[in-house]
Amino acid sequence: MDDLKGHRIVIPVALAGRGYDVTIESGCVLHGFAIQAREFLAQYRPRTGTNPRKVPFVADENSHRLFGEAIETSLESQNCAAEWFVVEPGEGAKSWGVLEPLTDWLLELGVTRSDHVFALGGGVVGDLTGFACAVTKRGCGFVQIPTTLLAQVDSSVGGKTAINTRAGKNLIGAFHQPSAVLIDPLVLDSLPDREMRAGFAEVLKYGLLGDAEFFAWLEANGSKVLAREPEALAHAIATSIRAKARIVAEDERETNGVRALLNLGHTFGHALEAETGFSDRLLHGEAVALGMVLAARYSARRGELEAARADQAAATVAAAGLPSEISQLGLACDGNALADHMRHDKKMEGGTLPFLLLKGIGKAYLAHDVELADIAVFLDQELRPGTVPIA
Ligand code: GLY
After folding, report:
1. Least CB-packed of 125, 168, 208, 323 within 10 Å?
2. Residue 47: is its pLDDT beyond 60?
């Protein structure tokens, strides 16, 4: 069991020439940030004559309000001062409209390729900052400081960066690895419970896709993780990141099917998010949770997963307070409307959509023979439980 008392957990992401460490340590951001980050502060070369040295931070309003002061106090000890670019919370920040002033600001600050920009926030801030750094001077450094559970266990690690456009989410982006990821579980103390549960969905994902033992541990200890009990939380975060680091090291650019495993629940989930307008009605993690249950139920329908295992996945999702039945969403649409959203998925290739399905708990695989028409029939049944489909 991982335990943070008095020590840190360091997980390397092994990528030749672009490798970095993910550090998990209680207080590493809230108490002593500058010590933890000094390697990246030292590399910062400010415009001549600035004293104290200016360090660029991108943050959402909430993270800035909650953690900005602690970071500033810590930076003073290194004769550094934070310069803030603060964005409104929410997906709206992942846009051309915010990217442009952000990159202008980085250029005005005189950021060079060997400098580091710090991304303090959830997945939105990490994705936006990472992409801005990918394109500024053809690539400058950045450090991820994720402040949500979802960002800590998933989006801050692996170098996927992007903004959204009219055509869809994350369609403009780049693979650009951070130079470090600093995870302070203490920042989760102020995270709303709903956001905590949404992040927990991505933790469950690692168990379901490849680690039955971890899934069993989460079945028994999920409530402790959600209650932010330090040992349980550290173990959940560290186990998730070890899994992600392994996967990213094997398939950085999602070209050989290994990284695609991380999309378990995402194809169904993305369609549900699209149908609910990518709004607070259904958070990304909630959509992934329900998407994983649907992937399990569809796998059982194909005879590849025992129905009892699909029920087990649904029960674990429900026990975490996450949606486990599509009927809970009160959608007015039919299965075909949801399948239509999938037709616009960026993973569509040659008219088919690869689907992450399950052969067991901890045994995800990529199926290339799924017909969207069959998915539409399946979803119709899920939307109207109790009805018998016409053969
Ligand atoms: N969030 C999925 C990935 O990083 O590939």
Report:
1. 168
2. no
155 C-alpha to ligand 1 centroid (Å): 6
Please name the residue whose Cα sits nearest to atom 2 of ligand 1: 262
Domain endpoint, select from 126, 160, 190: 190
Of 241, 249, 147, 146, which is closest to residue 203 (Cα–Cα)?
241
User: What CATH number should be reported for the domain holding residue 243?
Assistant: 1.20.1090.10
User: 203-207: long-range contacts at Cβ-Cβ below 8 A with a sequence spacing of 24 or more?
Assistant: 203/149, 203/153, 203/236, 203/237, 203/240, 204/289, 204/292, 204/316, 204/317, 204/320, 205/262, 205/264, 205/265, 205/288, 205/292, 206/153, 206/239, 206/240, 206/243, 206/244, 207/361, 207/362
Is 116 catalytic? The answer is no
**What total of structural domains would you count in the chain?**
2
Is 391 within a domain?
no
Residue 173 has, within 13 A of its CA and on its CB side, a CA count of: 23
266 catalytic? Reply is: yes
pLDDT digits (tens, 9 = 90+) for 103-137: 999 999 989 998 999 999 999 999 999 999 999 99
Q: Which domain holds residue 326?
A: 193-383
